[in-house]
Amino acid sequence: MANQNPLPLYDKFLLKYTFSRVMDSFTLLFLLLLLGYRILYINNYPFPWLVAFLCESWFTFIWVVTMSTKWTPAYTITHLDRLLLREHELPALDLFVTTADPGLEPPIITVNTVLSLLALDYPANKLACYVSDDGCSPLTFYALVEASKFAKLWVPFCKKYNVQVRAPFRYFCDENAVSNIEESPEFYQEWLRMKEEYGYLKSKIENASQNPLPLVGEFAIFSSTNHKNHSTIIKVIWENKENLLDALPHIIYISREKKLDHPHQYKAGAMNVLTRVSGMMTNAPFILNLDCDMHVNNPKIALHALCILLDSKGEKEVAFVQCPQQFYDGLKDDPFGNQLVALFVYLGGGFGGLQGMLYAGTNCFHRRKVIYGLSPDHDDIQNRKKGDDVVNEMEVVFGTSKRFIESATHALEGKTFTRIDNLCNTLETAKKVASCTYEYGTAWGKQVGWIYGSTSEDVLTGLDIHTRGWRSEMCSPDPLAFMGCSPQDNIVSMIQQKRWASGLFDILLSKHNPFLGFLYGKLQFREALGYFWILSWALRSVPEICYAALPAYCILTNSNFLPEKLWIHAALFVTYNISTISESLKTGLSIRTWWNNQKMMRITTMSAWFFGFLAILLKLLRISEPVFEITQKIDQSSNNGRFSFNESPIFLPSTTILFVQLTALATSLFGWATRVGSGLGYGPGEVFCSAYLVACYLPFFKGLFGTGKHGIPLSIIFKSVMLIVESTNPELNRETEKNFVELFLEDLKVREAKALKKQRHVNVVVLESKKIVIQEWERRD
Ligand SMILES: O=c1ccn([C@@H]2O[C@H](COP(=O)(O)OP(=O)(O)O[C@H]3O[C@H](CO)[C@@H](O)[C@H](O)[C@H]3O)[C@@H](O)[C@H]2O)c(=O)[nH]1
Ligand SMILES: [Mn+2]
Fold first, then answer.
1. Record-annotated residues binding Mn(2+) (predicted)?
2. C-beta atoms surrounding 483 within 10 Å
C-alpha cells in the first residue's frame, strides 16, 4: 500500500518507571555487596557458604538480565482515524485458528473463536478464516458448519448494534449488555432471538458430541479416518462468492495429512500447512493467528495492528504485532499464578523498548513475506531475474507446487494476489501442499514458516525473525484486544509451565541460541539478554532448589549459610519485595495476588520448570522426546482456587521441600540439632528462610490434610519421605539409592508415555511393561 500520508499511523512512547528503577538498582547493589562479602569471608566458612555463593551469583546474573529487559519500557499508540482515510486500500488478512483435540478443546470454544473473528470490523471480502483441526474430528467440522449458519445472523447483529464482545458465549453471559431494553425494544427483540439461536447452536453441538454423527454425505470423508493416520481433508465451508463487503468472510476447514511414522511437528506443523493452503487460496499479505481458546475482544483490533504494520516506518522494520494474552476466567487473586498480567505489562513493555516483544503463539499479526523467510534489507528477491534458476531455487525452498511458488513469489514481491473466483477450484493443489511429504527437502520448519524443534515453537519462530533483523511491536488498545481461557487448576497449569520451560530450554541449547544470534545474526544484545531471561526458566530450577535446601540443611546440621549480621540479606528482601509489590499495585492487582504470584513462582520454578529441565536432560540422553501436551480448555467454573493433586511425580519436589523445612523447623523448635564441624551454628536467618518456604508451600501443607483430589496422594508422600531418608542417611546402601533413582526415572518415563498414549503415539504394550517394572519394584521393597 503506497503511503501518501505524511503522518505516522502509530507513535511509540518511552515510559519511565523511576521508582521501579531505583528499587531494582538497590536490589542489585545489595546483591553485589553480598557477593563481595562472600568472596571476602568464604574461607572462614563451611560448605553451605560455597553453595550459597554459587546460587547467589546466578541470582545476581538473572537480576541483571531482568533489569536490562525492563529498563526502557515503551508502548505504542495507534491512529485509527489516519488509517481509515485509506480505508479502500486496506489489505487482505488471513485468519488462522488451530485446534487439535475435541476432548480437551471442546468445539464450542473453537466455534466462539471463529465467530468472533468473522465479526471483525473489517471489510468481509478481505478476510478469510482458516481452521486447522489436528484432531481430524467430524464433530469440529460439524460445529463449524453449524456455526457458519448462525454467523449469518450473528455477524450482522454485532455490526448493527456495535457489540463489543463478539464471542457469543461471553456476550450472553454479560447481562449488562441488555441494559437499554427500554430505549430500544427492537434491539431487545433481536437480542432475544440471537440468544435463542445461539442456544440452538450450542445444544446441536452438545448433542452431536454425545451421539456420534452419522458419517454420511459431507461427513463420509471422516468415516475411515484415525486422527493420527489419515489423508488431507480440506473443505470450503462458506465462500463469499460475490465478494461482498458486508457478507460473511470465507471459512475453510483443514485437517492436514497425518501418517503414523511421520513426525507432524505439533502446532508448528499445523501453522505451516495453514500458511501454504491459505497461500493457494487467498494469499493475504497479513496473517492473524489465534489459538482456539482466544477470542476477539476488541473488534477493531485488526485495524489497530495494521496501523503499525502499514505505517511507512513499520512497513520497513516491523515483522509482527503481538497483542497481550489476557484471560476472562481468572479466579479471584490469581491463586495459581497463571494470569501473567504483570508479566505482560513489565516484560512486554520492556521488550517493546528493545527490538520488540516475543511472539507468544497467539494474538499475533504476521507479515506473510517475513514468514517466507525475507529479511528487512533483503531486496534481491525483487531484483532477481526471472528464469529457470529462480524457479529451481524456489522449489528447494518452498517445495514443488508450481502454484504455491507463484503465490509465494507474489507475497515476497508485495504484489496483490489475483482473486480466485471459486475457491473449490484450488482444492486439489491445496491438498498437495497439506500432505506429510510436501516439506521433505525444503526449507519449511528451518528457514521458512514456523520453526521446528521446540514445543515452544512460538518463541523460537519469533527469535528467528528477530535474528534476521526485524523488529516487532506490542499493541494493547483499549478495550483489550483478545481474551482467552487460562488453565483452570494448578495441575493443568503445571503441565503447561513444564512444556514451556522444556521448550524454551531446548531453544537455548540449539543453534538458535540468542547469543549466537547476537554474534552471527542481527539480534540486538539486550534483546538477546531478554530472550535469555525467558529461555533459562528451566535452568533456574537448579539453583533455586539448592538454595531452598540450604536453610533446612543448616538447621539440621547446626551450621549456617547466612552471615551473623543479616543486614545485607534483610535489605535485599525488603527492596525486592517493595519493588514487586509496587509493580503489582501499579498494574491494578491486589496484595493477595502479589503474594500468590510470589509463592507460585517458587512452586513452579522448583517443580514444573525442574521437570522441564529433566525433560531436556532425557532428550539429550536420547531417552525420550518432549511431547506437546495440549492444555485442557474445559470450563471448571466450580474451581474454588484450592490446589488439586495427583500421583504425578511433578508434586514430588515440592512435597519433599515442604517436609524438609517442616523437619528443620521442628528440630529448631525442640533443640534437636546436632553440631557438626567447627563453624557457628544456625541463627534466626536460617529459621526465617525455612519458615518463609513453608509459607510459600502452604497449599502443599494444606494438601497433607486434604481429602480426595485436594489431598496429596500417599504414594507421593511415601516417595518424599524415602527421598529424605535416602539423602540424610549416607550409610544407607548404594543399592536402595540406585533403586530409588530408577524408580524416579521410570515414573517419569511412564508419565511421558502416558502423555504420548493420549496422543496415540506409543503402543500400550510399552506402557504396560513399564508399569509392571514399577509394580515389581514396589513389591520387592
Ligand atoms: O499438535 C498440536 C498441538 C497443539 N495445537 C494447537 O496449539 C494451540 C496451543 O496449544 P495449547 O495447548 O492451548 O497451549 P498453551 O500452553 O495454551 O499455548 C501457549 O504456548 C504454546 C507453546 O507452548 C503456543 O503455541 C501457544 O500459542 C500459546 O498460547 C492450540 O490451539 C492447539 O489446538 C495444534 O494445532 N496441534
Ligand atoms: Mn492455550
1. 267, 291
2. 23
The closest of 281, 285, 218 to 426, measured between CA atoms, is: 281
- Overall average pLDDT of the 662-674 stretch: 83
Is-contact 148 328, C-beta < 8 A? Answer: no
Q: For residue 122, what is its C-alpha cell? A: 473489517
- Ligand 1, pocket-test mutation among 266, 292, 630, most atoms within 8 A of CB: 630
What residue's CA is closest to ligand 1, atom 17?
631
Tell me whether residue 121 is one of the annotated catalytic residues. Answer: no
Sign of CA dihedral 72, 78, 82, 83: positive
* Band of residue 737 on the pLDDT scale cut at 50, 70, 90: low
Q: Which single residue is written with the C-alpha cell 511393561?
A: 769
d(CA 437, CA 421): 29
Separation CA 584–CA 571 (nearest Å): 20
Q: Whose CA is nearest to atom 30 of ligand 1?
A: 291
Which residue has the CA at smallest separation from atom 36 of ligand 1?
Answer: 267
Q: Is 291 in the pocket of ligand 1 (CB under 6 A)?
A: yes
Mean pLDDT of 156-178: 89
* 333 labeled binding residue: no
124-143: pLDDT as tens digits: 999 999 999 999 999 999 99
| pLDDT at res. 752 | 59
Collapse the DSSP code of 230 into the 3-class scheme (helix H, G, I; strand E, B; otherwise coil) and give the result.
strand
Question: Is a pLDDT exceeding 70 seen at residue 87?
Answer: yes
Neighbouring residues of 310: CB distance < 8 A, sequence distance ≥ 6: 1, 3, 9, 83, 91
State if residue 450 touches ligand 1 by the CB under 6 angstroms criterion.
Answer: no
Report which of 333, 775, 366, 306 is spatially closest to residue 597, judged by C-alpha positions.
333
CA 80 to chain centre: 29
Q: Are strands 74-78 and 10-14 parallel, antiparallel or unpaired?
A: antiparallel
Beta pairing partners, 471: 318
Q: And the C-alpha cell for 295?
A: 477470542
- Residue 134 designated active-site: yes
CA distance 649 to 610: 11
The more confident residue out of 755 and 415 is 415
CA of 514 to the centre of ligand 2 (A): 25
Catalytic residue among 24, 133, 134, 293: 134
Instruction: For residue 761, give the C-alpha cell.
Output: 503415539
On whether the CB atoms of residues 135 and 101 are closer than 8 A, the answer is yes
pTM: 0.91
Higher-confidence position of 347 and 298? 298
- Mean per-residue pLDDT over the chain, rounded: 89
What one-letter code names the amino acid at 479?
Answer: P
> Collapsing DSSP states into helix, strand and coil, what is residue 80?
helix
291 assigned binding-site residue: yes
- Looking at residue 757, its pLDDT comes to 56
Tell me, what's the pLDDT at 63?
A: 97
pLDDT tens, residue by residue, 362-390: 999 999 999 999 999 875 444 455 566 77
